Amino acid sequence: MSKQHAPGFLALVEAAKAQIKEISIDELLQHREPYVLLDIREDHEWLDGHLPEAMHLGKGIIERDIEQTVPDKKQKIVLYCGGGYRSALSAQTLQQMGYQQVLSLAGGYRDWLQRNLPVVKP
């Protein structure tokens, strides 16, 4: 059973999606340029499993810690969360902070799992 999101939250996400770029799982799998893959889910979600090569920087601290984690604001960054909502909001925030190549993974971890793609379980 999927979680029902509040209308105000969904409106905020849709507004963010209008200002950011999303990348599909297929596009990510074919992507050959270097990028930083950031899992912005909560700690307990990260511990349940994450995408290979991902680093963890939760949504609650991303604005505080991103400049230490990714100091180059021209570096391509792909963000993902559970379903693509939180990552869209964070992508918008990082753009506001001056990051120039931020992408949100459409469908997030949930779609990755549905496609039976590899995950890392710490």
UniProtKB/TrEMBL annotation:
This is Rhodanese-like protein. Residues 31-121 form the Rhodanese domain. CDD domains: RHOD. The lineage of its organism: Bacteria, Pseudomonadati, Pseudomonadota, Gammaproteobacteria, Alteromonadales. GO terms for molecular function: thiosulfate-cyanide sulfurtransferase activity. Gene3D superfamilies: Rhodanese-like domain (3.40.250.10). InterPro entries: Rhodanese-like_dom (IPR001763), Rhodanese-like_dom_sf (IPR036873). It holds the Pfam family Rhodanese. It comes from the Bacteria.
